[in-house]
Design brief:
Layout lengths: L7 E9 L3 E2 L5 E2 L3 E6 L2 H8 L8 H4 L4 E11 L1 H14 L31
Antiparallel strand pairs: 1-4, 1-5, 2-3
Length: about 120
């Protein structure tokens, strides 16, 4: 019998604080990255290099700030499907404005979820 994943999963979007500029010299928002996890605080610390386990891609664009959280998802499989839908449907700052009109995998964070206080 296989083990059932009963953890609560979230999809998150982080933005790099490293300045970017257009060819014309106009400042642009930092790079955006989407992922999924059961522990957003820990994962953000990993992306920022405070603890081991971050992503190779995000190590080049530190520091990162949390800009969006979606969820909850019951199981890693659903969270990965939602992450994929977000990554394939939205780019850049648009990833912070994902909605149910964009994908069946969208889940709004509950108003009572304490993770809301992590957002800017």
């Amino acid at each position: 019998m296989s083990k059932v994943d009963i953890r609560i999963w979230y999809v998150y979007v982080i933005r790099s604080e490293v300045p970017r500029f257009s060819k014309a010299g106009k400042q642009l928002p930092g790079v955006h990255y989407a992922g999924c996890t059961t522990d957003i605080k820990r994962r953000l610390r990993q992306h920022n290099g405070e603890i081991t386990g971050g992503s190779k891609y995000t190590s080049c664009h530190r520091p990162w700030i949390l800009v969006a959280i979606y969820g909850t998802y019951t199981g890693q499989s659903d969270a990965l499907k939602a992450e994929r839908a977000l990554k394939h449907g939205k780019r850049g700052t648009a990833r912070t404005q994902w909605s149910s009109d964009d994908s069946e995998w969208f889940r709004e964070l509950e108003p009572t979820d304490k993770l809301r206080e992590l957002l800017l």
